[in-house]
Prior knowledge:
2 copies of one chain form a homodimer. By secondary structure, chain A is mainly α. Chain A has 2 domains: 66 residues, Multidrug-efflux Transporter Regulator, Chain: A, Domain 2 (Orthogonal Bundle), CATH 1.10.1660; 53 residues. Helices cover 70% and strands 0% of the residues of chain A. Chain A contains 5 helices and no strands. Chains A and B meet through helix 5 of A and helix 5 of B. Chain A binds a DNA duplex through helix 2.
Amino acid sequence: MTNGHKQLLTIKQVAEATKLSVHTLRYYERIGLIHPIERADNSHRRYTHEDIGWIDFLLKLRATGMPIHEMQVYAELQREGDHTLPQRVEMLKRLQHDLEARIDDLNEHLKLIRYKVSFYSEVIAVNTEKELV
Amino acid sequence: MTNGHKQLLTIKQVAEATKLSVHTLRYYERIGLIHPIERADNSHRRYTHEDIGWIDFLLKLRATGMPIHEMQVYAELQREGDHTLPQRVEMLKRLQHDLEARIDDLNEHLKLIRYKVSFYSEVIAVNTEKELV
DNA sequence: GCTTGACTTAGAGCACGCTCTAACTTGTAG
DNA sequence: CTACAAGTTAGAGCGTGCTCTAAGTCAAGC
């Protein structure tokens, strides 16, 4: 540690750490995906490591395809405190089931694509042979 | 068969069969995802069963998350004829690998969600017990 | 004192993938 | 003859999720 305070990060550092742009970080805060970030005296944002943890989790929700509106609901419940835990668990359960269903669908589509790739590859191979004869 | 021609379908029937709206069917044709559909004397579209087959395939590509621009390229290659088969196979191979990677990612996210669900469920269960004591 | 650069805000703009509207034609039923 | 249903086109509009711009503040270095 270089000083006695907890390590606070600038928006640029958080952008680098999370791979979000500074624009997107401010946007997420504006729409309530991220709680209002603490400010330094000059009104610049100062992020904590807990903030980064939350953002990382958000990015995981996003990667599952959860729409922003739903993430907003989740974030709001989180801010309301521990008594909303059951509702958040319900949301996560629904997400889990959605995700399972979507993965199953994608696996079905993957099967079809694999089949087409091998079938068409065979067609190409046969045609190439003919040309060689 | 009610007549000697191949069975042709109206746009409405195709919309019902594919679950696309008539708007979307026309839109897909306009942007080249679907080749120009044959017309009846009154200029109404008449779809063949092969057209439906192509649309079903398109919907599968769409369901894999392939962007419209790429589907346009694929559709154009298809229209150019058999000699583009190798290029189409390359596209499908890339899609296959993408899909495999995305499914892996989703499975990772699913693990996390499952973990959170069971962890938080446990927290709730413990708190509920305490209340009962 | 002046420039540079990192930050701030409010709000405009954009890419994607539809989705709908307006105005019109055509065929069928009463 | 009229009304209605189903189709047509060109083009406008919309929801999502960013992404960028303009105008300004502020601190540090020359």
